[in-house]
Amino acid sequence: xxxxxxxxxxxxxxxxxxQADECSPGQPGNLACIAGNECFxxxxxxNGNWVCRCAAPYTGAAVMMGPTVCMLEECDVMCPTxxxxxxxxxxxxxxxxxxxxxxNDWTCSCRAPQSGTGNQAAAACVLNECDVPxxxx
Length: 137
What we know:
By secondary structure, the protein is an alpha+beta fold. It has helices spanning 3-17, 28-32, 74-78, and strands at residues 37-41, 50-54, 63-64, 91-94, 107-110, 117-119. The chain has a three-stranded antiparallel β-sheet. The radius of gyration is 26 Å and the shape is rod-shaped.
C-alpha cells in the first residue's frame, strides 16, 4: 500500500470516528423527531441510520430518518386495570382518541345495570332499581 493510500485510510477512519451523533442538539434527527418521539442513533459512526421512536408511555413503530406517529392509550396509563385502577371496580375505561395530541379525554363508565360516567376519574355509579328486572321465584 502506498504512503498516500495509507494516509487516506487513516483520514477516513478518523472522519468516521468523529461523526456526530445524529440525535445531538442541532443534528437532523434531533430536529426531525416531534413531540412524543425520541431520536435514537444506534451507531454514530454511520451516517443516516437514526430513527424516531415513540417515547414511553407513547406507542408506535419507529421510522427511519423521520418523525413517527405515536399513540397514547390513556387507559393503559391511567387505568392499568379498570378493576383496580383510577376507574375502580365494575367500571370500564375508554379513550376516544389515542392520538398523541389528544390527552385528558379518557373516561370511566359504570357497567350495567349501573349508570354513570366520570371524566378523567372514577364514575359515580347509580343503580336505578326500576331498570333492574325483578327476580322471579
